[in-house]
Amino acid sequence: MAGRMIELAPDHKLGLPLACPVMLAAGTIGYGESCHRELTLDGFGAVVIGPFTNRSRAGSQPPRMAATIGGFVRRVELQNRGVSAALRKFGRLWPRLGCPVIAQIGDSEKEEAASTARRLSSVEGIDGFELVCSQEASELEIGRLLEALLFESDLPILAKIPLTRAAALAAELIAGGAAGIVVGNPPVGAAAHRDGGTVTGETFGPGMFPMMLAALMAVKGLGLAGSLTACGGIHTREQAGHCLAAGADALQLDSLAWVEPAAAKALAAAFASGKHAGGGEDG
């Protein structure tokens, strides 16, 4: 793997080449300002920043997180400052992050998504977009969001789709112009909070890996054009290797970067240097 570039937008005029297949998912470093001291970005193939929406969004009321066996449930509901405020405060950071930067767009309305993409498309340091496809949105609504982004920007667009709907959505999104598919958006779960009550939200952690791998294999089996990225529960070199062996071009780390940032850094370094889970060199 050492020395081989990974292309996340193989049929796009600009392309989105990565030097390493390991990326950081949205939420791991905020807008680029929240890198843990053990999570420097050298060695990662790319980083997803955001989410961005046209207008600011408040976060959920606490408690927002609860542990469960095999992971945790997290409820933040796309909390962010809004695209204008994020640009003013953090835009200067993006050209200096040292790897390709993908901006995640979380708007659920076509006009708002178009405005967000328009604001970001010409910003220095942004190399592509990741469109969040929500659990509740219909295929028609998701298609309209993708159409809006394609109209407003020449940058390649990856579509992050729910694990539970991965095979059903992937083909239409690639046919509609997405450069690649990210599998995927975590399922909704619930867990008891230690101080009482229940947190309902997206589920993260190594317990998500089998579900993600199954969805990844289902999408790979469709034989679609475009790239395929695995995201969900990847915590070990063995799991990363399984994703690549199953047909993923790249992978995104989420919960590992939150709970063990040094381990996330080490995993990226191993795959950047061509080392397998078994310790050998990639041929």
Strand and helix layout:
Blueprint: E1 6-7, E2 17-18, E3 22-24, E4 46-52, E5 65-68, E6 71-74, H1 83-90, E7 101-105, H2 110-120, E8 128-132, H3 139-152, E9 157-162, H4 166-175, E10 180-185, E11 188-192, E12 198-204, H5 209-220, E13 227-231, H6 237-245, E14 250-253, H7 255-259, H8 261-272
Parallel strand pairs: 3-4, 3-14, 4-7, 7-8, 8-9, 9-10, 10-13, 13-14
Antiparallel strand pairs: 1-2, 5-6, 6-12, 11-12
Helix pairs in contact: 2-3, 4-5
What does this structure look like?
With 283 residues, the protein is α/β, with parallel strands linked by helices. It has helices spanning 83-90, 110-120, 139-152, 166-175, 209-220, 237-245, 255-259, 261-272; strands at residues 6-7, 17-18, 22-24, 46-52, 65-68, 71-74, 101-105, 128-132, 157-162, 180-185, 188-192, 198-204, 227-231, 250-253. The protein has a single domain, classed as TIM Barrel. An eight-stranded parallel barrel has the order 3-4-7-8-9-10-13-14, surrounded by six helices. Strands 5-6-12-11 form a four-stranded antiparallel β-sheet, with no helix packed on it. The protein has a two-stranded antiparallel sheet with strand order 1-2. Strand 9, helix 4 (166-175) and strand 10 (180-185) form a beta-alpha-beta unit. Residues 277-283 have low confidence and may be disordered.
Alpha carbon gyration radius: 17 Å
| N-to-C SSE string, H for helix and E for strand | EEEEEEHEHEHEHEEEHEHEHH
Uncertain segments are 277-283
Q: What number of structural domains do the residues give?
A: 1
Task: Please summarize the sheet with the most strands.
Answer: 8 strands, parallel, barrel
